[in-house]
Design brief:
single chain, about 425 residues, mainly beta, 5 helices, about 40% strand, WD40_rpt, WD40_repeat_dom_sf, WD repeat
């Protein structure tokens, strides 16, 4: 993302993606007392269970029968009025003309629960990897200035780390920033097994072991003015041990080990790197950023092995299929493209969203499904077994802070960021 975007912390309403709060439904048509009564009614909305949803209750608890607009009409209004953010003007329009959507109507994951106690939040409108499931019951997410843990088994919400004040490392490692950080503005998050890495707007990286108190390691990757940490991935390394890779707006990706927290590699690119993902065999890295083309890079040398062409805007998401041959890229041109490394001359599939950019992509561990999240309202689950030609469409209202499949593929979690309807959706 550009310098200007990196510092637009409070993305203004008139600009695009984060301006569509669903509590504004039809407000201008009513008197202030009526709006106040309705606000009280809406804020009392409780959780929704699968049995309630089967009986007809809205999954988010929106009382459509008491509103001045039907769900169908409001959906049409959102589709007409939602503005997809583009760095390259009209990229989405060009895709709309060229691209048809895949058939919807399949049902791979079933609604299980909507938890209103959990309030996911987003700080940067383009960065939406803020929800991570480490088991079918355990979810980590960003809520205001904190990393929270939600247990769907016990119904408990626990604060893991608060960034409003001061955070400093408790372990001694070379290169650590002893004084730590104050008031870190969180841009991205990754959690895997027992490890958590949080990235910040000024190049901060904060690492924590979930079984220990305190923070293990703090460092600032760069003092570049435009140093936002755009994405982090934690993985089992080719060399052994757990590593993580951080994508940064200073045009670099950095690899660290998670035992000693030492910088192992620093690869540089000609544009800001918005997302990276490492292949299952750990030999290739998919790299996307502020450029219409994506790259495949050798994980050891950092040399570009191949480029992929076809997107019309900047990309903010990538993911590998467990087969190690297929990977996907998500773009602000409203498409997710699927690629096969055996023939990169064109994409295997072009999958178009309803409203906006493909901001998060996740493959299931068994490889049967690919989950693609738009900025708001829609999450698509594609069947890989029929070449992505069939999909389940999960349809709700609100900005999406992140999506995550549990490691056993049993649960799918969706973070919904909204003033009134903020919640965590769970599908099984």
């Amino acid at each position: 993302m550009s310098d200007q975007q990196a510092y637009e912390f409070d993305y203004m309403a008139e600009e695009g993606e984060m301006d569509h709060s669903i509590d504004e439904m039809d407000e201008e048509n009513r008197g202030s007392d009526e709006v106040l009564d309705e606000y009280e009614m809406l804020t009392k909305v409780s959780d929704t269970s699968s049995s309630q949803a089967r009986k007809g209750k809205d999954i988010q608890g929106i009382p459509w029968d008491r509103l001045n607009i039907t769900r169908e009409k409001y959906r049409l209004t959102r589709l007409e009025q939602y503005r997809n953010y583009e760095n390259i003007p009209l990229s989405g329009e060009a895709v709309d003309k060229e691209c048809k959507q895949m058939e919807k109507g399949d049902n791979y994951y079933e609604f299980f629960h909507n938890t209103r106690l959990v309030k996911p939040t987003i700080l940067h409108f383009q960065l939406r990897n803020l929800v991570w499931a480490t088991s079918k019951h355990d979810v980590y997410l960003i809520s205001n200035n904190s990393v929270m843990h939600w247990s769907s088994l016990t119904g408990n919400l626990l604060e893991i780390l608060n960034f409003a004040g001061h955070v400093a490392p408790t372990e001694k490692h070379a290169g650590r920033l002893l004084e730590g950080f104050s008031q870190t503005q969180i841009s991205t998050l990754a959690v895997k097994d027992n490890f958590m890495v949080v990235g910040g707007f000024r190049g901060e990286l904060i690492c924590k072991r979930l079984d220990k108190k305190g923070v293990s390691f703090c460092t600032r990757t760069t003092h570049d003015d435009n140093a936002i940490t755009n994405a982090v991935e934690i993985y089992d390394s080719l060399r052994g041990g757990i590593h993580f890779m951080a994508s940064n707006n200073d045009c670099g990706i950095r690899e660290y080990d998670m035992e000693r927290f030492q910088l192992l590699n620093h690869f540089r690119f000609p544009w800001p790197v918005n997302h990276t993902s490492i292949s299952p065999d750990r030999r290739l890295v998919a790299v996307v950023g502020d450029h219409i083309d994506g790259q495949l890079v050798d994980s050891q040398s950092g040399k570009t092995v191949a480029s992929v062409f076809g997107h019309l805007d900047y990309s903010f998401a990538s993911a590998w299929h467990p087969d190690g041959r297929t990977f996907s890229t998500g773009n602000q041109d409203k498409t997710c493209r699927v690629w096969d490394i055996r023939n990169l001359s064109s994409s295997v599939a072009i999958l178009k969203g309803n409203l906006g950019a493909a901001r998060s992509i996740r493959f299931s561990a068994d490889g049967h499904f690919m989950v693609v999240a738009e900025p708001a309202d829609f999450v698509h689950i594609y069947s890989t077994k029929v070449d992505y030609k069939k999909r389940q469409e999960i349809d709700f209202f609100g900005e999406i802070s992140g999506v995550s499949l549990s490691p056993d593929d049993e649960s799918l979690y969706i973070g919904v960021c909204d003033q009134i309807y903020g919640s965590l959706l769970q599908y099984n």
